Amino acid sequence: MTDSTEYTPPKVWTWNKENGGKFASINRPIAGATHDNDLPVGRHPLQLYSLATPNGVKVTVMLEELLALGHEGAEYDAHLINISEGDQFSSGFVAVNPNSKIPALMDHSTKQPTRLFESGAILLYLAEKHQALMPKDASLRPEMLSWLFWQMGSAPYLGGGFGHFYAYAPFKSEYAIDRFAMEVKRQLDVLDRRLADAQFMCGDDYTIADIAIFPWYGALVSNKVYEAAEFLDTASYKNLNRWTQEISERPAVKRGMMVNRAWGLPEGQLRERHEASDFDTKTQDKIEASEATAKD
To answer: What b/e string do you get for 18-33 counting C-beta neighbours within 10 Å, with b at 16 or more?
Structure first.
């Protein structure tokens, strides 16, 4: 199906129909809660409410990296927020993130519990709190912040722009796909040129800039989102592919990508994470096997 109709915008836009597409049922032009529901609270200092989308993966990878470095204060409970069912519009979630987007984090180690929303803000907060995953050379901190905020500003063109019109829209619009494909390829070239001169985004040190960029652009070049790698010729970005492969092999990254995942191979899904041992005992394949045994 293609869009061949001419559209003349009205003088004042009104919401009188769903806009179609995969996420039409949860999109609306107003904020606030739609229903009352308290969020669960586990026993650890950090309570994460999320889903393993690229923005959610940033935070679970960050927490697993901190734990791998020995920062016990980064221990966390990860609660699944099913955005397709509107969990993000509960009163409890809106109290943590008035923007109703995952991820959202509560830090109960502070005198008054601290709420955090927006993935970039969460990464920066955790890095500063634990003095970790920042450049060893303090003069490179502005470089780290520049790439962190580059990702926050660029990803909407990738996800909400290219990804939506290429993979999720109810019809294929040549104009929209061409417009956003051009911008995404420009962004890939920006990254590829930078990584021609550096191992990581800030030089020799793996930082929150890499953690922020990897779940979006690493997933794109390795064809894990939108199935658009061939369309965008992502194999041609050699330096970006090298960086993607290197980061994907980190044990903490592998663990972080499993947390709050509710799709894909069952052995790769740890829908809720409350203890480090959950990776060995609570993945979906083990839960399903245990449930099957109980029925026999």
So the answer is: eeeeeeeebeeeeeeb
53: CB partners within 8 A, 6+ apart: 83, 102
Cis peptide before 103 (omega within 30 of 0): yes
pLDDT, tens digit (0-9, with 9 covering 90-100), for 45-58: 999 999 999 999 99
> What is the sign of the dihedral through the CA atoms of 272, 278, 283 and 288?
negative
Q: Please compute, for residue 259, the number of CA atoms within 13 A of its CA located in the half-sphere on the CB side.
A: 29
Single pTM value for the model? 0.95
If you average pLDDT over residues 147-172, what whole number do you get?
96
pLDDT single digits (tens) 95-133 = 999 999 999 999 999 999 999 999 999 999 999 999 999
**Which one-letter amino acid corresponds to residue 272?**
E
Q: Alpha-carbon distance 149 to 152, whole Å?
A: 5
- The SS3 call for residue 7 is coil
Report helix angle 54-68 to 251-258, nearest 10.
130
Q: How confident is the model at residue 4 (pLDDT cuts 50, 70, 90)?
A: low
**80 three-class SS:** strand
233: phi then psi, degrees, rounded to nearest 5: 50, 50
Q: Is the dihedral of CA 220, 221, 224, 230 positive or negative?
A: positive
Strands (E), the chain: 46-50, 76-80, 104-107, 114-117
Please say whether the beta carbons of 100 and 93 come within 8 A. yes
Query: What is the SS3 assignment for 100?
Result: coil
pLDDT in tens, 189-235: 999 999 999 999 999 999 999 999 999 999 999 999 999 999 999 99
